[in-house]
Write a structure and sequence with these properties.
This protein has 300 residues and is of the alpha/beta class. It folds into two domains: 218 residues, Rossmann fold, CATH 3.40.50.300; 78 residues, Alpha-Beta Plaits, CATH 3.30.70. It is built from ten helices and 14 strands. The strands form three sheets. A six-stranded mixed sheet has the order 6-7-8-3-9-10, sandwiched between helices. Strand 7, helix 5 and strand 8 form a beta-alpha-beta unit. The two termini are 31 Å apart. The structure holds adenosine-5'-triphosphate. The site of adenosine-5'-triphosphate has 11 residues, from strand 2 and helix 1. InterPro entries: AAA+_ATPase, ABC_transporter-like_ATP-bd, ABC_transporter-like_CS, DrrA1/2-like_C, P-loop_NTPase. This is ABC transporter ATP-binding protein. Keywords: ATP-binding, Nucleotide-binding, Transport. GO terms for molecular function: ATP binding; ATP hydrolysis activity.
Length: 300
């Protein structure tokens, strides 16, 4: 897979305050990357530097292996709070964006219509933006970001302000833009990232504290467990004393570390039957992205 963009030792200081602190990462062509971090962790500042809206204090951004060239024509950006003119129609707004990107007038209307179609707004192209819902505005923001068919699409919290249906719609649109576009988007809604992301970048206090595919990050940090719930704490205690596997108890539940290949639901079931325990439930616990993030951040 070839590299589209590489960031090396990027930092941003606001006077003495370090908003982004020496971060490095790579975006491969045709992939999507989620920039995940708590409020104030440096997501917007990072995206703004890549969108060339902010000058980095230190570091280099390489585009297809070459440093510091003007990458604006190849980049589309959807800010966290896009500004719209309520008196304009959707078509007029996307046309204006196209002109600001320097697109030629010839064939422009066709291109605008195709873009509105791609974001699911073809029916309302002639309607004024003032009457649009939050979800429609977000799609329109997306349309202005992709009208010039950028190679890299930067999105700052593209779904955070939307309801679950709106979130799903926008995530589906983004999925359809892959692999023609490479996508870097910030989010704190981790379910979405879990669904549509090749690479994760965890930011905390301006630093990249973990990066890699969901699979790799899970392998490094997930703690697989089998959770057995008993009818009473006494039974849970008795079972925990009996087994030789690493475990911990929380009230009526015993959490058994299942990272070893010898521990699985069948082996635990056998132990339970052999010793005549009756249980409420037995479950394999997988680690969610949210738990992974909390764990990685807590470890720093
Ligand atoms: N222009 C500025 N001047 C001073 N400090 C700033 C400026 N812009 C951002 N910061 C600070 O830098 C830190 C990182 O901000 P940034 O907006 O990048 O975080 P974020 O991860 O995008 O947060 P959120 O999820 O709340 O949008 C914050 O502490 C913020 O207050």
């Amino acid at each position: 897979m070839s590299t589209l963009l590489e960031v090396q030792h990027l930092s941003k200081y606001f006077q003495q305050f370090i908003a982004v602190d020496d971060i490095s990462f790579t975006l491969n062509k045709g992939t999507s990357t989620a920039l995940i971090g708590a409020n104030g962790s440096g997501k917007t500042t990072t995206l703004s530097m890549l969108a060339t809206l902010l000058q980095p204090t230190n570091g280099t951004i390489y585009w297809e292996g070459k440093p510091s060239q003007d990458i604006r024509p190849f980049v589309g950006f959807l800010p966290q709070y896009p500004m719209f003119y309520p008196w304009m129609t959707a078509t007029e707004y996307v046309q204006l964006s196209a002109k600001l990107h320097g697109l030629e007038s010839k064939g422009l209307l066709t291109k605008v219509n195709e873009t509105l179609e791609a974001v699911g707004l073809s029916e309302v192209g002639k309607k004024k933006i003032g009457g649009f819902s939050g979800g429609m505005k977000q799609r329109l923001g997306l349309a202005q970001a992709i009208i010039h068919q950028p190679q890299l699409l930067l999105l700052d919290e593209p779904v955070s302000a939307l309801d679950p249906v709106g979130r799903r719609d926008v995530m589906t649109i983004l999925k359809n833009l892959l692999p023609e576009m490479t996508i870097l988007y910030s989010t704190h809604i981790l379910n979405d990232a879990e669904e549509m992301t090749d690479q994760l970048l965890f930011l905390s206090k301006g630093k990249v504290v973990e990066q890699g595919s969901l699979f790799d990050v899970k392998n490094r940090h997930a703690e697989p467990a089998i959770v057995v719930e008993f009818h009473s704490t006494e039974e849970a205690e008795a079972f925990q004393k009996l087994i030789s596997y690493p475990s911990r108890r929380q009230d009526e539940k015993v959490w058994i570390d299942s990272s070893s290949e010898y521990v699985n639901v069948s082996t635990i079931m056998r132990e339970l039957v052999e010793h005549h325990f009756s249980i409420v439930s037995i479950n394999e616990k997988t680690t969610s992205l949210e738990e992974l993030f909390m764990k990685v951040v807590a470890e720093r």
